[in-house]
């Protein structure tokens, strides 16, 4: 009986230690979303900026740690995203009050605690924000294809993924004007070629390119260079929506490559078929996205 008593007491102590000091959350929320982890990751970061939160850790596409302040408390949100199909994910978030966690865990068995209502409301706000964003674009997976070969004039840029479109707009007139005033004929829609992608920092290096018909005398400019883009095998998707968020298609293609057991180079290429100045309906904007495959 003594041994049994020791075992019971020991078990209770172990459970208490785990509950109060090891279990990572005061409260857990979970839901399904019609998006892949990369899209949810990027949408969360945009939402975080709008609500004045802080992203303190981004280990990979499926994991983000966020801090939110509420009155005298700082709540730590540990987000996890796991794909459950080609178009959906399971989202779970473990929430902990960094200042009042111990007291929350004492009170929790006896009724609702304030962090539960606050956390449920915050998670619902993000859920609604995500679903609104998903209505703003469309991605169609087109299968295996080839990147078209072309000669181009380009400007090398770098920055956050979210600034990609603004970088293009800042340099559009320079590149277009230089070619037009020197009689260089265009040979297709403008495109970007990502040369480096850091998924942890959401940063890219990329070339903003205008396809041209090669001429014997190309105009010189300190920012403009010329090169040939060679054809190569790739996975392709069609994106309709604002070009600011066309990187959502990158994650679709990465997921497809993994699903098909293909080795992909994380260097997407995007061809843009619409001038946003002439069409207010963003769902009419079209981009063809290619993810190169390794030989």
TrEMBL record:
SUPFAM superfamilies: Probable bacterial effector-binding domain (SSF55136)
The GyrI-like small molecule binding domain, residue ranges: 147-294
InterPro entries, sorted: GyrI-like, Reg_factor_effector_dom_sf
Name this protein carries in UniProt: GyrI-like domain-containing protein
């Amino acid at each position: 009986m003594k041994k049994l008593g020791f075992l019971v007491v020991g078990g209770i102590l172990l459970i208490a230690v785990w509950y109060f000091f090891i279990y990572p959350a005061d409260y857990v929320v979970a839901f399904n979303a019609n998006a892949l982890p990369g899209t949810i990751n990027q949408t969360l970061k945009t939402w975080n900026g709008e609500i004045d939160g802080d992203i303190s850790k981004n280990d990979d596409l499926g994991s983000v740690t966020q801090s939110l302040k509420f009155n005298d408390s700082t709540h730590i949100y540990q987000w996890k995203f796991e794909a459950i199909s080609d178009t959906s994910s399971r989202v779970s978030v473990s929430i902990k009050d960094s200042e009042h966690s111990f007291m929350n865990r004492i009170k929790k068995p006896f009724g609702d605690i304030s962090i539960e209502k606050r956390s449920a409301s915050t998670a619902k706000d993000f859920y609604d924000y995500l679903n609104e964003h998903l209505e703003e674009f469309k991605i169609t997976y087109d299968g295996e294809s080839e990147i078209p070969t072309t000669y181009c004039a380009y400007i090398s840029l770098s920055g956050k993924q979210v600034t990609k479109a603004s970088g293009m707009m800042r340099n559009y007139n320079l590149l277009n004007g230089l070619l037009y005033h020197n009689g260089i004929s265009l040979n297709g829609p403008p495109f970007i070629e990502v040369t480096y992608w850091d998924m942890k920092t959401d940063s890219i290096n990329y070339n903003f390119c205008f396809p041209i018909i090669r001429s014997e005398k190309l105009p010189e400019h300190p920012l403009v260079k010329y090169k040939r883009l060679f054809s190569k095998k790739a996975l392709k998707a069609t994106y309709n929506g604002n070009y600011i968020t066309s990187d959502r298609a990158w994650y679709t293609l990465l997921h497809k490559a993994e699903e098909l057991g293909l080795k992909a180079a994380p260097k997407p290429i995007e061809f843009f078929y619409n001038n946003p100045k002439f069409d207010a309906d963003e769902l009419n904007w079209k981009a063809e996205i290619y993810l190169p495959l390794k030989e």
